Amino acid sequence: MPFGQWTPRFSGFMTVSFQGSIGERTNPVAGQSKTVIHAPQQTLDEYASFVGTNTIPGQWVALNFTYGNGVVSANVSLNTWNPTAPTTYYQIGGQIFLMNAFLEFNIPAIGPLRPRVMTGYFGPFYGSLAEYGLGMYTNPMIGSPRGVGELTIIEYRLQPTWTLFVEHGFVGSRNGNVPWNVVPTGGNGGANPVLPAAWVHHAHVVLRRTGDTQFHTGLHYLYNWAQDDRSQQFQDNGTTREVFENQIKDGNITVLGWDANARNASWGSVGVGFSYVRGENAFLLRGLNTFGGEGNNLTDRWWGPDSHGNGKLFAMGLNYNTSLGRMLRPSYSSDAPDVAINAGFVMAYTLTNTLTAPGTGPVGSTPIAPTSLPADVDLFNHRARYKFGVESIYTMRPWVGVALRADCVVPNSKDLGETFYVLAPRVIFRTNWVSRESISIIYGRWFYGPRSHPETSSLLAKDVGLDANLIVFNVNMWW
Amino acid sequence: MDDRFNIRALRALVIGATGVTLASAGPAHAQQGAVVTSPDALAQGLRFDPSLSLDPTLPQVAAMPGGLTPAFGQRSLSEGEWRFDFHGYILAPLNMGFNTRPNPLPGQNKTVLHAPPVVPDDLETFSHTGVVPTTYAQLNFFEGNSIISANVSILAKQANVSESFIEPASQLGITDVFLSILPPLGEKVHMQALLGAYTLRYGTTGEYDEGRYGTPLIARINGVGEHVAVRTGWRKFTFMLEEGVHGQTNVAGSSITPDVWNNWADPGAGSSFVAHVHAGVGYSNWVMVGAHYLRAFSQDEHAGSAAPDGRIDVYAGDVRLNLGRFGHFYEALSYTDALQARTVSRVFSVLNTLGGKGLMDNYLGPLSGGTGQLLTWGGQYDLSIGRLVSYPVPFSGDGPDLFVSLFWMGTHVSSADKTSTYMSVDPKSQDSRIKFDNVTKTKFGIEATYSLLSWLAASMRFDRVDPNLADARYSFSVLSPRLIFHTGWQSTDQVVLQYSHWFNGPWTTARVGQPALEDVSVVPDGDMVSLSARMWW
Fold it and tell me: Which residue from A79, B303, B411, B464 has the fewest beta carbons nearer than 10 Å?
């Protein structure tokens, strides 16, 4: 925005999907067909879950409004992950309404330093492996702090092509602690008084090179913690094994990470990242979305409910995307047929000191995993998980392209019966070679292992019959 | 910019008759015609408007008093011009219902005041007339060029500031999200594809809106999916073909408890889908005949282990006449055939009911299992006397006028529920039974609006409703005089002061509570005063 001139701006993004997964009814009675069709889909593809592959584009709408000048701007965004028109009941939280609201200051340079400050409600991402996003998979390799607070970025030009960035941020949870007499229900989005006010402090050092081959690498430190007496309850809730509500301990999550990305107009973009997550009594912590999620998901899905949020998680990822058109023809200008290739690999390894045996789970819930493993196997300690996938997109005309994506997911190194594969061909329509929108028709086929199952606290029940076939019709646009 | 502002539907007719594009008056439908600009194309009637369905960006409300219609949207003129546009509609009424207390105690007035009024005007019921204005706000955001555009709407059916308790579901938030694609196929063929999440309405009696009753006579589809409409012309004929497939994005699990916060989620409904096709023929921009077929179905084991697969089929035909100075006429006939439709979800709506369960609650009966048929008819006729008497001089709505609207609707219900339900608190009274099978429901009304000054109009509306034509004790009538204030002949604002009196029958009932249910012990209000403000842009 120009200095001194106050200007409104509007930008946005939308992705909307028609989804129907096809399965079979176990014992149809008269008037029931053997084939059943589910919307929303009933496969293992769930956002932010390790067993999710990002094969299915979901629903997300963002309307971003900015008003400001070259020095300061107010930024407000309206978001939803579930537009109301195609819903059959109202899901609290589906309409996020005002998601981000912050001021951004572009402070005039102080000597060689160019400071930039953001204050308000927002959430940056760290650990994006791809050129313009998270890569093949949706979990941030390093982490994403969310809340209200500040982010200060100081840019220092080392050489004409080398720049050093130092970032520091501090955010608190938006709501803080829920009052003690609030009963968690669907109506209040499960607001739970046991959740403490939590905070995130984070710092980063990034080195960036510009030029024909761009490069950046960064070191990251994020720390999420709580020390709030109000979350202490009079009695323990026996149905939650992850925490003793009458003995709430101060929890913390530490994330150390490194990432690097190099990209060149000819050979593409390669990103690599590594993160180390350590949790101490982390189950109740919110505000920092690590590779394994917030405190609750780290506990339930990565370290086991009996760990109470104590454990370690090592994650690494690699992502590569390229265009054969650019690679093979130096004069390529994007206005011609092309083959684009994306490939990604993610691996994670967990350590925890508490044993969670197969067939166990939170009281009253279905078991964490099928009980085929010996009872003395520790489901989470020294467990490795990995997944990889490749996608190739052939754009043959300005308005149409075809793509094929294949993924392999190994959720449990201790039980390869959970391994599964996904194959997803799709046809993509656009209005031009380079456009702001795409329309995709996707067929997805899941090849499940004998014990493939949703993760703990998934939207799907553990014992649900998974659908193997999926039809998706997705439209998206950005502006 | 003038053409994106609302003007009278009357003016649309005038402009259409004088050969200028209808786009200047109509909503997005009309603007789509801008793709076809050659005189040949005009002669062939490719811009026949409105089309078989109502544009998704139009507010989901009944027609406004006084024969006004909001116009939304203005497309970019070229593929290279990316443009942002913003439109909206707000309606904020203060409604006060008057009744008397049977046995007032000391400190209690005999007269009681109700907000919202306790009157038989629930949207889901046949008794709905649309006389009572209800809060509504819609903001439409548009970004695109002449070929493709992103459309996002934000909706609310309550304003938080005037709520006595929070109804989360009344804040619909981001509701419609879709792409509109108008591929440049030449002057002979006009095609539009809507892709994403939005609402489609078929059988809307108004020329550019849902009509006086705010009730699509054929069906309403709320879903995510695709819809393609193709129009082509030959001589003075226009041929239209539409198809669509839609689904839903969430489903209520068996563990969810229906409650006000989740808008009374229905775990008994399964994943549902809608497929529909439509064909229409128009002649010389003054008549359009349409044929419609829609099927909504569910085959989902989550609706219940013993729940049969359900479906709703709708077969319909409609005719729309643009009679120039003689006004606008619409008539539709629709046949709804429901089979075990209890499991069909709210993505499909017949006569404003919510899915198969809504159809059972309001028409087919609780023991029907969702099996039954509705034969529905209805229509509307609008006439501007000012334009009629001005002919052949064009009348653009910028002077005194008398606007008359006639509207009617009926449905005959055949249900698998052959039983009767007691309406009275005295179950021994055989006369007080309400039945569902073989019931005919009718309603009709007339509204006349006299625009006497640039800032003032007076209106009178009369409605008659017979929820059971065979038993007049359920029937009622409504008389609604109004004063309409606005800032100009063609302004985009209204302030309406309205009084309504209900002539209720002895068994006329109103819905009260959460969820809104019939309560025979409640005597409906006989009078209502309303002060409403609305604006569109």
Answer: B464
